[in-house]
Amino acid sequence: MPRVPEGFAVTMPAVYFSHGQESGPWGRKIRSMAETVRSLGCRAESVDYQDIADPTERVARLVAECRQVQEPLILVGSSMGGHVATAAASDVGAVGLFVLAPAYYMEGLEALTPPAPAIPIVIVHGWRDDVVPVENSIRYAGDCLATLHVVNGDHRLTANLDEINRYLRQFVCERIKASAKTSDMV
User: Fold this and answer.
1) How far apart are CA 60 and CA 114, in angstroms?
2) Strands (E), 29-106
3) Under a CB-based contact definition with an 8 Å cutoff, are residues 163 and 100 in contact?
């Protein structure tokens, strides 16, 4: 965890998770990542989209859920949840975006790929993803200069949880440190 100089208070981020099309709000991957961010002192929430298939309606739900968040906000999403988190990030004033195998540039739906928000972005994608081609994340990361980690995994990335949690921990710590510097200037 980053050290904050004595006498300075830092508001720890709230981390909101968005699950994929076929999963739920507290699946194994999200539970593991939530444990990681909680160990840093962050609040972890996961939005339930199981009753909504339409990505636009999922974005609206995430925006509504985040409306009252007072802490710096980090969005995390997997697959369609990555698309949803990306699409909502600017509207909710997120300070960071961490996505796994995000559903960008899907065949026939390329125009629905959300523009990159002007915040730090980390993308993790598996080389062996047979649902969302890894090339889609490479293209998106190249277009917006996001940090990209391509791992030896498939679409679900469950075999890569330790690696993902290391990347997530580093990302959240960087956002905490950036928040401390910003509050330092106020």
Assistant:
1) 14
2) 43-47, 73-78, 96-100
3) no
DSSP for 150-186, written as a single string: EES--SS-GGGHHHHHHHHHHHHHHHHHHHHHHHHH-
Tokens of 134: 């890894």
Quick one: residue 122, left, alpha or beta (phi over 0 = left, psi -120 to 50 = alpha)? beta
Question: Is 61 within 8 Å of 49 (Cβ atoms)?
Answer: yes
- What is the spatial order of strands in the sheet that 73-78 belongs to? 43-47, 14-18, 73-78, 96-100, 121-126, 147-151
Structural domain boundaries in the chain:
14-185
Q: Pairing state of beta strands 73-78 and 121-126?
A: unpaired
Residue with tokens 């968040």: 69
CA–CA gap between residue 14 and residue 135 (Å, rounded):
30
Token readout for 91 is: 């509207």
Architecture of domain 14-185: 3-Layer(aba) Sandwich (3.40)
pLDDT for position 155: 97
The pLDDT tens digits for 128-169 are: 999 999 999 999 999 999 999 999 999 999 999 999 999 999
